[in-house]
Protein 1
Amino acid sequence: MASGIPIPMRSLTVKFHYNDLASIESLFEEHPGEIACVMLEAETTEPPMNNFLHKLQRLCKKNGALLIFDEMITGFRLHNGGAQAFYGIVPDLSTFGKAMGNGFAISALLGKREIMELGGLYHDKERVFLLSTTHGAENHSLAAALETMQIYQQQPVVEHLFRQGDRLAKGVNSAIAESGLQDYFQLAGKPCNLIYITRDQEKNRSQAFRTLFLQEIIKRGLIAPSLVVSFSHTDRDIDTTIEAIGESLNVYRKALAEGVEKYLVGRPVKPVFRPFN
Amino acid sequence: MASGIPIPMRSLTVKFHYNDLASIESLFEEHPGEIACVMLEAETTEPPMNNFLHKLQRLCKKNGALLIFDEMITGFRLHNGGAQAFYGIVPDLSTFGKAMGNGFAISALLGKREIMELGGLYHDKERVFLLSTTHGAENHSLAAALETMQIYQQQPVVEHLFRQGDRLAKGVNSAIAESGLQDYFQLAGKPCNLIYITRDQEKNRSQAFRTLFLQEIIKRGLIAPSLVVSFSHTDRDIDTTIEAIGESLNVYRKALAEGVEKYLVGRPVKPVFRPFN
């Protein structure tokens, strides 16, 4: 997805591998004094292994780089305070959004005082202008976020997400085992934030099989590009979901044996982020 | 305001002067084949002179650069179709917002089909990803924009802005003339989009005098960092505004004679965009 982005801008960023501290250490060595910050989602499908986040924090500090967490997805889901609260680590800056306003357009940049203050009025350094927007004074999203965050505090939202996600994962994993599809259809992520992985006969990731699965669950009244539960999902919702997935996995199993084309009605879906149509 | 913006990014942009075609010609000569687009507000305080916009369009076409209008302020104000409709010119791309949703957070990118299609699905080139947002499906802003644009079409909003702005400009200019302040307090911009300029004894732009003026109008119940009228402003609102400004200009005149410090209660306001506090 680099088309349209000037090369000088692309070259300002270098990439590392999650849970692979050595891959970040070597970047600091290759670009001494040039890395301003390390940005990452604190957790996506894979949890931090071997104290990865805390070690990364020490590595950043040693190299004078800021540690920035993107908590857009993890915020109010892993924990009301995001992955940083869940794992007991305080990044230098972090971003929240999505669940924060329960659908309303709002997001937040949080950070340590000494960094955030660079955008403020009480210093003599050059100003870093953190925010200037036309709709900065818009207030219905703020009202929605305040109300939403109050509900997160007063009601067991995160607990519910973990409980129902766990129930869902157990049910789906049973259905997978019954169909003997352990190597072809898999769940990943925390109970509160489940995704699924679809594989073909050769056990390679497959968009065709993903499409077949979507086709079959949609037939059964279920739209689920992922398996992320919400506070409104009841036990009954979860059970209905497990049932629809179980039935769909039977078709999946046949398609593995007889060929996915035989069962696929339309063309396979493509990933959202792709360089070509 | 460049603090925090990497030098390679800053060096991707070069600047020209509005209404000065030669300043753009020389940039095209200095950077042959390297200028992707020319971006500007089609009009701010100064109208296009000597067919500037049309000549700029020809210059861009000749050099293979896109012409992009920022119509955030001019859209639905100079004309329902923005400055491009007012001046009869079609830029390659343009942006609308602000008045479009009458306070709700919505904006639009418009453009010629062959450019906009690069973000779409019906071509074989590398994709240019124009939009991917969490809140892309948020709909109350869209509803607000549809309703607002319908009102612009059904009621004489733009005409009202021009008429009331004209009434305001005439009244304020009379007050300026009565106080003999023609060289010190001035209006600029179209009637629909008036701003004011404050000058000190040496006729230099002055934030201290701007602050004094703000102080005096606020005392008289008027908050006006600019003099941009809206559809809800009645004749009576305009007359009250002229009266408050007239009285404030009397204080302004005294401050010119006796020193602004004598009349200023607090410290002078600073411009929003400034490198240091």
Protein 2
Amino acid sequence: MSSASSAERTVSDVGEFELIARLTSTFAKPERADVVVGIGDDTAVISPDPDAELLATCDAQVEGVHFRLDTISPRQLGRRVIAVSQSDIASMGGMPTHALVSAALPGTLPVAHFDEICGGMQEQMATHGGAIVGGNLSRTGHELVIDVSMMGYVRRGGAVTRSGAKPGDAIFVTGDLGASAAGRDLLSTRSAPIPDDLSHLVQAHISPTPRVSEGVSVAGSGAATAMIDISDGLAADLGHICAASGVGAEIMQAEVPVAEGVAAAAQLRGKDPWEYVLRGGEDYELLFTVAAAQLNQFRVIFKELPIPIRRIGRILPQENGIHIVAPGGERRSLAGKGWDHFGGD
Amino acid sequence: MSSASSAERTVSDVGEFELIARLTSTFAKPERADVVVGIGDDTAVISPDPDAELLATCDAQVEGVHFRLDTISPRQLGRRVIAVSQSDIASMGGMPTHALVSAALPGTLPVAHFDEICGGMQEQMATHGGAIVGGNLSRTGHELVIDVSMMGYVRRGGAVTRSGAKPGDAIFVTGDLGASAAGRDLLSTRSAPIPDDLSHLVQAHISPTPRVSEGVSVAGSGAATAMIDISDGLAADLGHICAASGVGAEIMQAEVPVAEGVAAAAQLRGKDPWEYVLRGGEDYELLFTVAAAQLNQFRVIFKELPIPIRRIGRILPQENGIHIVAPGGERRSLAGKGWDHFGGD
């Protein structure tokens, strides 16, 4: 049957020019008025917002390192690669507006998967009114690699970097933590079935939600002194803020919002749930600091946000180091690494 | 000796955080005043040029597909990945200003190679006053993949796309063609030594020069109706202009500038030199069209450009197709594919 065989065609079967045609038709005609030229020319042409500053970042997802095609569908993969880059723009307080997508494809990838990946990217990009304006295809011998460059805007002077935290600032986090790492760990045991009541953890890992409107609100409050998205884990990303700002910090363990089901997943896997919460990474929640003098002003914003925000600690002078304080008062150092792509263990 | 063992350390040995520190120190402190935040935060922050339009493009280079580390040095590779993206900006008439670099590295890559690749990128980016403002590292199991997203500016309304060519326009090309493809072919025969008098062909393949000032001048003349850089080969890239513009074309074979040594290389390899010239690709010369009424105006620009420009043919109505006319008057179709990354043959 020709339709069945068509569904199983690979990217090698159809060739680069047809793949480009498919990609172009998925991403063509963005609704954004500022896209002068979209996909299909040597470069995209964008009419910049003169009142804003441009944000730009890139992130690659590599098969076997960041995802496995037996645990994530092609459409989910497409959504995920866009979502994690939107999160980087959100963590500066910006709106993600334009993306470039570069895919290195193994020749054996089914064309149907390619189409689904593109469809997922388009879907996720549209959730915040953005457009995919450029792309590149190349072949790879082994792993599928998708690299996304995301651009966005923030009002002039309004970007919240990692480097503005000061001793006395309060530390906040959006949402709750640990679900993605617990879900990733459950997925890693291919043989064991995942209990129904823990499937939301897998979902959290596969389909993270970038906190775009939250990031814009936090930055817009004018009260935030530093912000980052939690991709390496709370411990490592707090460490990034502290290193960039030249400060220390103290987290109250009792205040850290742990996602539902994380404790159960840890028990099932014989792990410490705090490993997921502090070092797991890929939560894509926002971690930010607010000057003590502006806490009241910030509380107004706080109540308007669609998701809960929790105050979990405070910034200290650098010589205090970075610690977590247990409910009984015991202090443990949070120094060390989160999730190292190249390291040994 | 510790210095010898240090020179042989791999990216797996040193881990992601040290690699990021090395990359950050290579790319830190760009001299451009418009870089508000460079490498080291969640995104770069750029103060956009309010009088210009933003250009953005991405291009990936994959080990084993676009380069082999036994025929290109790490520093040359770094220069090349930046140069080919600068060429895309040039082909719209823009100045390349800011780049994001995403590298997927096999764990076995020597750290010294990583440093050299970064150094080469920095060197090439600086040739046109640009800055690398963001990066991402990930691990790959096999091939080294380097993806560059390049941004640049062109005056508002001044971008020269592929789609503006009209019947009657003259077709021009910068420099000469075929050297890169001939050099690539010579490199592909690992066993045979490359004659000294053909080494410039290899050089042309390994170290292409993006025609940045030429592109800016051509666009600035206001006379160009369409432009593209020759990455897929003259035949394919002329085809891209014709498809986007809805026109046909006729190239006079006697006018096409063939690079020195291309005929000798073809003889050595038992090939047709016109395969290199028409279908070889990776010349990174500019192919553009000029309205007949503006040819005189354009000739002024023509004489000021640092490299030769050659008029090679004319745009025709679409129904005429795309042909090359031999000195004896014989017409051959140029339709078909240039260099297909996925195709069979």
